[in-house]
Amino acid sequence: MNISIDNKPLAEVDADAVIVLCFEGRKEQRFGADGLFESGEVAGKSLELTLLHHPPGVAARRVLLAGAGKPEKWNSAELRKLVAAAIRHLKSKSLKRASLWLDAGEATPDSICAAVEGAILGDFEPDRYKTGNDKKTLESFTVVTASPAASQQAAASQGRVIAESQNFVRTLVNEPGNRLTPARVAEAARGMAAECGLECEVLDRAQMESLGMGALLGVAQGSAEPPAFIVVRYRPTQPAGSVHLGLVGKGVTFDTGGISIKPADGMEKMKYDMAGGATMLGAMRALSQLRPAIPVTAFVPCVENMPGSRAQRPGDIVTAMSGKTIEVINTDAEGRLILADALTYARKQGCTHLVDAATLTGAIVVALGHLNVGLFASDDALRDRVLAAAKTEGERMWPMPVEDDYKETYLKSAFADLPNVGGRWGGSITAAMFLKEFAEDTPWVHLDIAGTAWIDDAKPFTAKGPSGVPMRTLVRLAMDWR
Ligand code: BES
Ligand code: ZN
Ligand code: ZN
User: Fold this and answer.
1) Mean pLDDT, 10 residues at a time, the chain of 482 residues
2) Which of 30, 250, 336, 385 is catalytic?
3) In the prediction, which pLDDT does 28 show?
C-alpha cells in the first residue's frame, strides 16, 4: 500500500473517498451532510460509518463520515481502530484510494502514526492461499492536513514500520503447520534479519544437546521435524546504561498435544501456537528500523509437538538446562518446557530483563476471555513499564497473581524437582509459576496470549485470524526505556 502525507484544504482532497472524523455530541456540520446530524441518522458513535456520495464542495467523490465516539474518550488507539474499520469498509466496496482528513488540532505525530497503522492493519487479509483474483486491497492511503509540519513524514514512516511488522507477525502465525516447520521459522528469521541488518543465529539439535536443553529436546523428540532455537540480536550504536532486554517467544509450529493428544475438534487452530515467537521476530523487525537506545535480543525456541514413536511419555523425567529436573505429567504442557530452557539461555546470554509471550494455557482464556492478555510479573517496575506500554498501544493486559503459595500448593512432584502441570485449578497461574522457576531472580514478565493472539470472528476493524498482539507493546517498551 502506498502511504503518503499531503497538505491542502479538505475541499481539495482528491480520492475515491476521504475519511472525516465525526464526534458524538459535536453539532458542527460538515460537507453537505446537512440534516444528517439533526435527524439522528449520523450520531458520531464509535465506529459508525456513513458513506456520502458526491458531497457538494468537496473534490473527492465520496466522504466517509467516521464516528469517533465521545471526545473525552478519544485517543490514538481509538483512531487506529477507526481508520482500520474505515479502510475495511472502503475496500469491501472496491474503493482503492483513501484519504484521511485531520484537523489542525488532530494532526499530532501520534495520531498520524496511529492512522497509518490503522490503514495497514485494516488492509490485512489472511488470504495468502486463496487462489481467486477477486482479492480486495487498498492502493493508497494519504493523511491530509491543512498545513505541513516537520514531524509528519517521520510519524507516517514510523507507523508504517510498526504496522508492517505486525502484519509480518500475522502472516507467520497464519502459516499452517505443514508449511511452517521449525526450520522454516528459522529461515524466515534469517531472511528478516538479513533485510533489517540484525544478527541472527540458529542453534540446531546438536548445539542444544551440548547446552543441556533437555526440557526443549524432550518436546522435540516426538516429531520428524528437527527443532530450531532462533536468536536475533539488535545492538544500539551507543547503548544507554547496562540494560539488556530479552524477548522470549513460544515457537510451537503445531501443537497436537503429543502423547497426551488433544481432541480433534478445533485442533487445526494449533498452528498459532508459535504466535509468541512470531511476535518477538516482528518486534525485532520494527526495532531494527526504530533503533531503541538499549540492546534487545529475541529468543525463539521452535519445535513441533507430535506423538511420534520417539515422543516423550507422561511420567518421563527430563533435566532442564538450568539443572532442574521436571516430571512430564502431561505432554500437552509443552510450551513451558521449551520456554524453561529458553529463559535459562537468555539469562546466560546476559539479559537483565526478560519478557516472554506464549499461547500457553487454555486456562487464561477461561479467566480473561479473548479481550485481555494475562500478565504475570516477578518485578513491579518491569510490570508497570509493560502495562504503560500496553496502554499507549491499546493492547489490553490484565495483571494476574504471582505468589509462591501457588507453587507450594499446586506444583509438587514426588519424583522430580517440578511437575510440568499443576492441578485443575489456576492453570494459567501454575504455568506462570513454573516459568518463574527458570527466570529465577531476573526481572521477568510473562504474557499469556492464548486468548488474544487469534481472533475467532472478524470485527469491523480487523480480519479473522492472527491479531499480532502484543507486538506493539514490546516495541513501545523498548523504545520508551529510559
Ligand atoms: N498451546 C496450548 C494452550 C492453548 C490452548 C493455546 C488454547 C491456545 C488455545 C498449550 O500447549 C496447552 O496445551 N496447554 C494445556 C496445559 C494443560 C495440559 C495443563 C491446556 O491449556 O489445556
Ligand atoms: Zn500443548
Ligand atoms: Zn502449546
Assistant:
1) 97 97 78 74 95 93 97 96 98 97 95 98 97 88 95 98 98 98 99 98 98 99 98 94 98 99 98 99 99 98 98 98 98 99 99 99 98 98 98 98 98 98 96 98 99 98 98 98 94
2) 336
3) 62
**45 a catalytic residue:** no
Ligand 1, atom 7, lies closest to the CA of: 362
CA atoms of 291 and 198, how far apart (whole Å)? 11
- DSSP states of 399-447: E----HHHHHHH---SSSSEES---SSSHHHHHHHHHHHHHTTS-EEEE
Query: How many C-beta atoms lie closer than 10 Å to residue 139's C-beta?
Result: 13
Ligand 1 within 6 A of CB of 273: yes
Residues 6+ apart with CB under 8 A from 386: 355, 375, 377, 397, 445, 447, 473, 477
Tell how far the Cα of 47 is from the centroid of ligand 3, in angstroms: 35
How many Å apart are CA 329 and CA 391, to the nearest integer? Answer: 37
Residue 169 grid coordinates: 507477525
**Is 136 part of the annotated catalytic residue set?**
no
168/393 Cα distance (integer angstroms)? 18
- Rg of the chain on CA atoms, in Å: 24
The CA distance from 320 to 311, in Å, is: 17
- Ligand 3 centroid, distance to 250 Cα (angstroms): 8
Other Cβ atoms less than 10 A from the Cβ of 197: the count is 9
Q: Which of 312, 332, 433 to mutate to test the pocket of ligand 1 (most atoms within 8 A of CB)?
A: 332
- Contact residues for 381 (Cβ-Cβ < 8 A; gap 6+): 443
Q: Which residue has the cell 499507549?
A: 392
- Output the nine-digit C-alpha cell for 185: 521459522
pTM value?
0.98
CA dihedral 267, 273, 279, 281 (to 10 degrees): -120
Give the whole-angstrom CA distance, residue 203 versus residue 229.
5
